[in-house]
Write a structure and sequence with these properties.
The chain has a single domain, classed as Rossmann fold. 37% of the residues lie in helices and 15% in strands. It is built from eight helices and five strands; from the N terminus they run βαβααβααβααβα. α1 links the parallel β1 and β2. α4 crosses α7.
């Protein structure tokens, strides 16, 4: 796909990760060439059939682990990233600079590279009440990340009452930049 903006859609292990077709299709309709990067747990939630369908939909392999040194990159460099769903765990690790998975490695580097990044959380109200979350969200926002928590983004649900059918994929896609210059710099471990 030439002359298309490349979006890395990075999915953590939360129920919306089982509906990646929705987020991918919305981003594609908005003109993005979508590459999927999953947390290791989110990857295991996908069946072989799901993975094959997603690869057919995106025309790219799905990544979930660091590549071996010296191995060629299989994905084009990103123009923007969207972490959706972004879990409580990932938001806090990201803010702390922990990059123990490919997904976290990519989003921590994206801040230094000043790539546009949108985070669309999925968490419950009990997790949202933990003091680490507000600190982490504030830090990520100060670094330029569009964290869509509350308002027009994701509103935390009561524990055990998540409504994955109303996950606001469109809000995440709408928050992406309308145009982005090809960066081409991001090392993708």
């Amino acid at each position: 796909m030439t002359d298309t903006r490349v979006l890395y859609l990075l999915a953590c292990a939360a129920p919306p990760a089982q509906h990646l077709r929705t987020g991918t299709a919305l981003a594609q309709q908005a003109g993005w060439d979508v590459c999927l990067i999953l947390s290791p747990a989110a990857y295991t939630w996908q069946s072989n059939r799901d993975l094959a369908e997603l690869e057919t939909l995106t025309h790219h392999p799905i990544r979930y682990a660091y590549k071996r040194p010296g191995t060629d990159d299989v994905l084009p460099p990103p123009d923007a990233m969207m972490v959706a769903p972004a879990t409580f765990n990932t938001i806090n690790k990201w803010a702390a600079g922990i990059c123990d998975t490919l997904l976290l490695g990519l989003v921590t580097e994206a801040l230094g590279l000043q790539l546009p990044v949108v985070a669309l959380p999925y968490l419950n109200a009990a997790q949202a009440a933990h003091p680490a979350l507000s600190t982490s969200v504030a830090l990520l926002r100060s670094a330029g990340v569009s964290v869509l928590l509350g308002g027009d983004g994701f509103t935390p649900h009561r524990p055990q009452h998540g409504d994955v059918d109303h996950y606001p994929w469109a809000a995440g896609v709408d928050a992406l930049p309308r145009s982005a210059a090809t960066n081409g710099i991001l090392p993708r471990g």
